[in-house]
Amino acid sequence: MLTLSPIQVPKASDVLADSLREQILDGRLRVGAILPNERDLAERAGLSRASVREALRILEVEGLIATRTGRNGGSEVIRPSLATIERTIGIFIRGQNIRLASVLEVREAIEPHAARLAALHRTEQDLANLHACHQRLVQHIDDVGAFLRANLDWHVSVVLAGHNELLSAFVGAFAQTVYQATDLQEFSPPEIRRTVARAHQSVMEAIKVGDADAAWRRMARHVGAYVHRVKDMGPSGLPAV
């Protein structure tokens, strides 16, 4: 007896988006290339203009093309930016109601290595950026909101100093999420803020002299302490982000 299971037929727009995406990613369509207009694409692919329009919208959301409207409009191939992956990760975190503890555990896993990379690859400008963030943090030690903003800016600056694009994107996505979830007085009492400032100074000293091992240890101790503090609050104290 013949048996058949449901056959999933992909949407025409998805097929076209897949084809164009592959040509962009493998370099056949280079950055700056202008795609044919909707009518030409529809004729070449044998699809409706509505399907072409949807395919282009998919690629635009993915950060692979920029579409301009008007008389001289068109779709230009662009290079995906860090904002693309930051937006995707941020949406996933919030859409899945990921617990803050889970986000911080990821930070605990990657930020010590980011500090190691910073010690190995930082520039004088990176050091200046770290110092500026630290100064803002110290200046706003009594303002929880401004302190948390400066704190996360500092952590992002450490990652940027390592000059690893993927780590920069990941931590950039976490930063705003953590900032929004921890903008609470009880999360950062004065004594904790002062401890954070001292920990940052210690990490910065290791990065400045290029001591990768010390940078790793000090950042691991710093981020680990915060993660443990969050967990100590218990399930009722851990907000979803």
Task: Summarize it.
With about 240 residues, the chain is mainly α. The protein is built from 10 helices and 3 strands. It folds into 2 domains: about 70 residues, Orthogonal Bundle (Arc Repressor Mutant, subunit A), CATH 1.10.10; about 160 residues, GntR ligand-binding domain-like (Four Helix Bundle (Hemerythrin (Met), subunit A)).
The ordered H/E elements are HEHHEEHHHHHHH
Total tally of structural domains: 2
Q: Give Rg in angstroms.
A: 23 Å
**What percentage of amino acids are in beta strands?**
under 5%
- Tell me the helix content: 55-70%
Look at the structure and name the CATH superfamily of the largest domain. Answer: GntR ligand-binding domain-like
Q: Return the CATH class of the largest domain.
A: Mainly Alpha
Instruction: Give the number of helices.
Output: 10
**Morphology call:** elongated
Named CATH architecture of the largest domain = Up-down Bundle
Q: What structural category characterises the helix and strand content?
A: mainly alpha
CATH topology of the largest domain: Four Helix Bundle (Hemerythrin (Met), subunit A)
Tell me the total number of β-strands. Answer: 3
| Main beta-sheet annotation | 3 strands, antiparallel
- As laid out across the biggest beta sheet, the strand order is 1-3-2
Assembly status: single chain
Uncertain residue segments: none
Termini separation comes to: 52 Å
Write down the overall mean pLDDT: 87
3D architecture notes:
It is built from 10 helices and 3 strands; from the N terminus they run αβααββααααααα. The protein has 241 residues and is mainly alpha-helical. Strands 1-3-2 form a 3-stranded antiparallel beta sheet. Strand 2 (65-68) and strand 3 (74-77) form a beta hairpin. The longest helix has 22 residues, at 100-121. The radius of gyration is 23 Å and the shape is elongated. The mean pLDDT is 87.
